[in-house]
Specification:
By secondary structure, the chain is mainly alpha-helical. About 80% of the residues lie in helices and about 5% in strands.
Length: about 180
Amino acid sequence: MGTRTRVTGLLVLGLGLALAGPPALAQGAAGRIAYVDVQKVLVRSMAGLAAREQLEREKAAMQKDVDTRRTEVDKLREELEKKGLVLAADAKREKEESLQRKVRDLRRLAEDLEKELQRKEQKLTQTILQELTTLVERVGKERNFLLIMERRSAGVIYGDPEGDITEDIIKVYDQEKAKEKK
């Protein structure tokens, strides 16, 4: 279902509720509206925690590589400072150029690794969001919800805690992920 179709569906739903007026809301339609805090699900679900742990491990490995290269650069800089006065002009120029190349390569490496980490984070988050969308739709149908909104992007300023199904979604999501592992 495309974004345009979803927006149109929400507009039709809102219009229908508005035209139906307070009697329709009094008959329980309001009780069938819920919201989910997706950010909370990402932070507290097993899949979200596993994704963060994976990213932290990869970040640590990348940082180790950057630190190793930074140490090499620091050693070369130190060597150049100590021996710079006694080196021949050509040798000194060659060491300075080598140092500049290593510094430039280190910056590029750090930037590339940061971009790679961001891509991986986006991919993991996107996978979880796709799974959550399917799950929320299924829970909504099973529990006969009229509408389930994402708390933050829907601009929910106030929501009765009864309408918050975030914990239910986390529980069901974790159960499904546990079944997948078996």
